[in-house]
Design goal:
Elements lengths: L1 H13 L36 H7 L13 E5 L33 E4 L7 H15 L5 E4 L25 E5 L6 E5 L1 H14 L3 E5 L20 H12 L3 E2 L1 H11 L2 H5 L11 H17 L6 H4 L20 E5 L31 E4 L7 H6 L2 H8 L5 E4 L25 E5 L6 E5 L1 H14 L3 E5 L19 H12 L2 E3 L1 H12 L1 H4 L12 H17 L10
Parallel strand pairs: 1-2, 1-3, 3-6, 6-7, 8-9, 8-10, 10-13, 13-14
Antiparallel strand pairs: 4-5, 11-12
Helix pairs in contact: 3-4, 4-5, 12-13, 14-16
Length: about 550
């Protein structure tokens, strides 16, 4: 209830212009103008930026240019570039950090010139003059700014622009410094950026703001289509420049997620994005550009890459569901030498009827729940899912590894929704690392979101025999699996104990044939045995997937 009331109040404040607040112009001959919009965000930047630091930390405008290739300049605030260094050391990321992934570096370079805390007004006055020096004919400039265009006109950060797109202006004296300044409407600042770009022979593009973590009365993400989004669109139409509704594209994605998933796209507050949110917004911006019918964007579109969603490479047969296997080397290994190491997923054909269901082994050796996600492997599975599909999820063997070494595999050892910012030892990059249970819950929700069925599979047992019995991990990973099951209600196949029970019956000496190389990785015989245990588990739990078994 508290969240709903907050969201409703936030929406009301953000979608209305405070015309009742009338500012007193310095020149009494001038008519009064609309008062500034209320600062409903109440967010203080976690890493306060000084302009001096910013000017040395950000790349000098235009210096990324390769030969005579154009540069794509990004103009924005902390939602585009967070922190002085923009490196995620506070767990918050701006989408400009990832935008280069959608452009061919051999044809164009992307420069993120955004800075936290800037409004359309303060960026134009303080940073734009230097950016302008780096712009050449043929360059491109994306302007997506407005989150900070509120608060007082003449005190504090003095960032507010006049609401709307009119020609109103206001002469103010900054209370703390005595500096005099003329303040313009949001639309007028947009026109200034546009006119400056055109004068330099560059191509300006206006984008609406990234969405906030705020809901309207219909439990949908609040849009800015009555304020900044509308104003940017109107100015773009008036000036004949491309407009991309980034706010709507990303908000529609957030609306399609459950609240738990939507929430982790933000970090620490309701505006600044996590790595997930930043990557989503970067893709949304790229999709908006690539899908635009505006002929002005054709040259830029020709330089774009990676816009199509990555998917698993397999042939889907009409009317036939697909079962995906995700996991580590115990699910997919070299799988080619009888004396080598095999994963049970490679032997799925021995238990599933290929005439009824398609098996896709998307597992990868050496991966943990965390690295499988971070490397984009889960994204391929997610993008490939259709209603009626199944996904078997088995991780844990590598989640026990270091959090910060070069493999970056370790997850926090629990099932709670917890996380922590770590700096990696080799790359020196920062990452928000989550718990083992959190990663499992993300996979589960993603699968359900697509109308498919997730099945959690406990990790295979190791060939270790404490007290004469095969090892069990029911006090660690087994425990966390069960806690996730209890929280999510997901189907659970306890492969760990099913296989361990069977190995206890076979006996320690004979089980050696199932593990030829080490105590973790199975031989072909071991992989086939584990596949049979999977089939046994599906039948025991009366899973709908069992009807596709041989």
């Amino acid at each position: 209830m508290r969240r709903l009331l907050f969201a409703m109040s936030l929406m009301a404040a953000a979608t209305s212009m405070s015309y009742a607040q009338v500012a007193k112009p310095a020149d009494k001959a001038k008519p009064t103008v609309a008062g500034p919009m209320e600062d409903v965000n109440h967010v203080i930047d976690n890493t306060v930026d000084s302009l001096n630091k910013a000017m040395t930390a950000r790349i000098k405008p235009g210096t990324s240019r390769k030969g005579n290739n154009p540069v794509l300049f990004l103009i924005g605030n902390s939602t585009m570039r967070n922190g002085t260094l923009g490196n995620g050391n506070n767990g918050q990321w701006g989408w400009g950090y990832y935008e280069h992934e959608f452009f061919d570096a051999n044809k164009i370079t992307v420069e993120n010139q955004a800075l936290g805390g800037m409004s359309s007004r303060t960026f134009y006055n303080r940073l734009w003059p230097d950016v302008r020096k780096g712009i050449k004919a043929g360059d491109w400039v994306i302007i997506s700014i407005g989150h900070n265009d509120n608060g007082p006109y003449d005190s504090g950060r003095a960032r507010a622009s006049i609401p709307g797109i009119g020609k109103d202006s206001l002469n103010v004296t900054i209370k703390e410094t005595g500096v005099k300044e003329t303040v313009y409407t949001y639309g007028e600042y947009m026109r200034k950026y546009i006119n400056d770009c055109k004068a330099l022979g560059a191509h300006p593009i206006l984008m609406s703001l990234t969405p906030r973590d705020a809901y309207d009365e219909n439990d949908k993400i609040v849009r800015v289509n009555k304020t900044f989004g509308l104003w940017a669109k109107q100015v773009a139409e008036q000036e004949g420049v491309p407009f991309v509704d980034l706010n709507e594209i990303s908000a529609a994605k957030l609306d399609s997620y459950g609240h738990w998933k939507e929430k982790y796209h933000f970090f620490k507050d309701h505006i600044h994005t996590s790595r997930f949110g930043a990557m989503m917004n970067a893709r949304s911006a790229a999709e908006g550009l690539a899908e635009s019918k505006d002929p002005e964007l054709a040259p830029l579109q020709a330089m774009m890459i990676n816009v199509a969603l990555p998917v698993e490479n397999f042939k889907r047969e009409p009317g036939k569901p697909v079962v995906f296997f995700t996991g580590d080397s115990t699910v997919k290994n070299a799988d080619k030498d009888e004396d080598g190491m095999w994963g049970w997923g490679s032997q799925a054909y021995t238990i599933f009827n290929p005439k009824k269901i398609t098996c896709v082994n998307a597992a990868k050796a050496g991966r943990s729940s965390r690295s499988y996600l971070n490397e984009g492997r889960w994204e391929k599975v997610y993008n490939s899912l259709q209603p009626g599909d199944y996904v078997l999820i088995e991780f844990g063997h590598n989640d026990i590894c270091s959090m910060t070494d070069k493999k970056m595999r370790g997850s926090i050892p629990c099932a709670k929704d917890t996380c922590h910012v770590y700096q990696m030892e080799e790359s020196k990059q920062y990452e928000v690392v989550y718990s083992f249970g959190w990663y499992l819950k993300k996979f589960i929700q993603d699968v359900r979101e697509k109308g498919a069925t997730p099945i959690l599979v406990s990790l295979t047992p190791r060939n270790e025999w404490p007290k004469g019995k095969m090892e069990r991990r029911n006090d660690t990973y087994g425990k966390w699996y069960r806690e996730v099951v209890a929280e999510t209600g997901v189907a659970f196949l306890d492969l760990h104990n099913i296989a361990a029970d069977s190995y206890d019956k076979i006996g320690k000496e004979k089980v050696k044939a199932y593990y030829k190389k080490d105590h973790t990785h199975t031989s072909l015989k071991g992989a086939q045995h584990n596949a049979k245990c999977v089939a046994k588990g599906l039948k025991k739990m009366k899973s709908p997937l069992a009807k596709y078994l041989k």
